[in-house]
């Protein structure tokens, strides 16, 4: 499997289009063939390839003797009896394929996600939108409900921001990541933040290559807040990097000779852009208005705004019941007993565990203190802020977040 790695010696600093397509196509086909051999296909209705590979916008970068490429995300619609078996089995297959790639010198993640038709009402609308407009059918027939007119929501936009923050923290906390990987994540997630603000303004553009163009049009019409032309100039350079995989091209576009200076610049850019857009989204949702604040003022207001958001976004009763039912399984992933008790208490009080983790990760991202937690109901978060990042593996906390929808 993945025999192509043995034939990649001719790829020097970058990849030509045909070489890139060959590598991506071989990895996709090899992963799919292995998956179909490893599951009971009688219960598999459909397999969709989603994400940048489905849009033909995947990134592939050579880093020394290794290759880094965009993640492979497969959505697998299965029949109801098989779903609960599939969740564990698909995780095992995904892990094995990802590890095999890494052993062969390819840094990527291969993920097979089981999906049920009856769970569509719990699926974020942005996923259903992407299944409809930017997925590739790899096996079976697409379910009818996928072709409905789903569009992303403001909640989807906000979750994209929190996911970007989690991705940023994950990379920053991992000592094994390379400079190229960090640059890739900062670029990719900066473009995700742009996607979020476009969704908030009801501009639905799924291709990287079109987002900056639409953003410039909106900015000229004064219908795009927070973002300015300097931001868009940088985001345009990041888009070209995302599509080409050329770090040298990115250095030239942004006028950097030193790769570490470029890395630090992109780190600061991502953080500032994320904070501005997060503040805008939360203020609209929580306060129903947005003031024209400077970045320094946003830094001061955002921690309190985050607390207000978590307090006001308690779960509706249908999701609350599901939260309670899944609480034991999910909270058992936290080994620290004190933290497990804290998260369970939030779950019982109808707080979204995912939102609580989003808040904690964002405070970690902001490097803030716990002085803003005045509310008695949210007082336990003070203990999390003071102790959790010393006691809990940050990667495990991010994994716990991903298990909650």
Short descriptors:
alpha/beta; Beta Polymerase, domain 2; three-stranded mixed sheet; 9% strand; disordered N terminus
Concise structural overview:
The chain is an alpha/beta fold and 405 residues long.
Explain the layout of strands and helices.
Layout: H1 17-38, E1 44-50, E2 60-63, E3 66-69, E4 72-78, H2 80-103, E5 106-107, E6 110-115, H3 125-133, E7 136-140, H4 154-172, H5 179-200, H6 208-220, H7 229-244, H8 247-253, H9 259-287, H10 295-312, H11 317-331, H12 337-348, H13 353-366, H14 380-391, H15 394-402
Parallel strand pairs: 3-5, 4-6
Antiparallel strand pairs: 1-4, 1-7, 2-3
Helix pairs in contact: 4-5, 4-9, 4-13, 5-6, 5-7, 5-9, 6-7, 7-8, 9-10, 10-13, 11-12, 13-15
Task: Explain what this protein looks like in three dimensions.
With 405 residues, this protein is an alpha/beta fold. It has three domains: 145 residues, Beta Polymerase, domain 2 (2-Layer Sandwich); 139 residues; 86 residues, no CATH class. It has 15 helices and seven strands. The chain has a four-stranded mixed sheet with strand order 6-4-1-7. It has a three-stranded mixed sheet with strand order 2-3-5. The chain starts with 16 loop residues before the first helix and ends with a helix. 34% of the residues are buried. The N terminus is likely disordered.
